[in-house]
Please model this.
Amino acid sequence: MSSPPGLYVHVPFCRTKCPYCGFFSTTDQGGIASWLEAVALETRAQAEVLTGFDTLYLGGGSPSSLSSGTLLALLSVLRDTLIFADQVEATIEVNPGDLGPERAAWLRSLELNRVSVGVQSFFDDELALIGRRHDAQLARAAIEDLRAAGFADLGIDLIAGLPGQSWSKRLASVERALELEPDHLSCYDLTLEAGTPLAAAVQRGELSLPDDDTLARGAEAVAELLFRRGYEHYEVSNYARRKAHRSRHNQKYWRHVPYLGLGPSAHSFDGADRWWNAASVATYGDRLGRGASPIQERETLSDEQLRIERLGLGFRTLDGVALADLEPADRSSTLLNQLVEQGLVTIDDGRVKPTRDGLRVADGLARAFL
Ligand code: SF4
Model:
């Protein structure tokens, strides 16, 4: 039986722009009303493309920065127009600077059952360096407020590899996160996005990034700590307190399950075609307003392209890849046997699955078979 699709809504508004940010987002709050109207139009136009969603993910941008009225209106449009499954994992990305006890309780009343809190670091000097509008204490308070409000599925997002960050400071941020007992932890490495102020500062030599050894040592120390604390390392950058706390929504991306993306710059995938919307609030709204499609581009993936993607994504997860996705000659090759002997993969139930050690070299595993 095929898995139900996921629904993503891109909320492109932020109160301030972080200097490392490569996501499509704007600080111009003047476009919120027209964005909401356009999302409603797109939702109605796409209502039959995919149905039976069992995940809803409000991402951005900063969805938690929307006014109560806007957020309520958005959820009403989605829930009144689209068909959802019975048990929906409904996630909202939260910026700690947007919260307080009342706001946290109100978010919980919206039948959102999962929060992903963008903390990024538990050190104030690092938060200042990357231009976050909250400090570590505010982040702790936000998480406590969300817990008190009844969120039983709470994730903390951290960024690793910040300029000047030692491996031990990266580990210390995770230790501080663990004091708050998150159900999920994402620890993504910083990606320097061309054109951002942070990338320019690195290029000018004003800031320097950790070297590869520091990054590898930090990643290993974090993985070891979280393993000892009982977290499941289920994707290269993601850890869950229990299997039930894995991000159901993100697993759809990694497993090639179809998803619908609404909002400017949002991507969609139906199993063979991938398409994405214009990355501009004005263009997105204009097109929908005159009855045109907001899609900027569409591609049809060949079977071979899909197979290559499955290898690239699959080796980054504990689920691994189907043996059938390897070239026939690779399925019983010396290479595969060596990887098993080295303890980097196991073969189980028709799948090649990376071990904990294998996840550390996940991209290399994929390259070995491509
Ligand atoms: S809050 Fe997130 S989306 Fe907004 S500018 Fe910062 S990193 Fe980008």
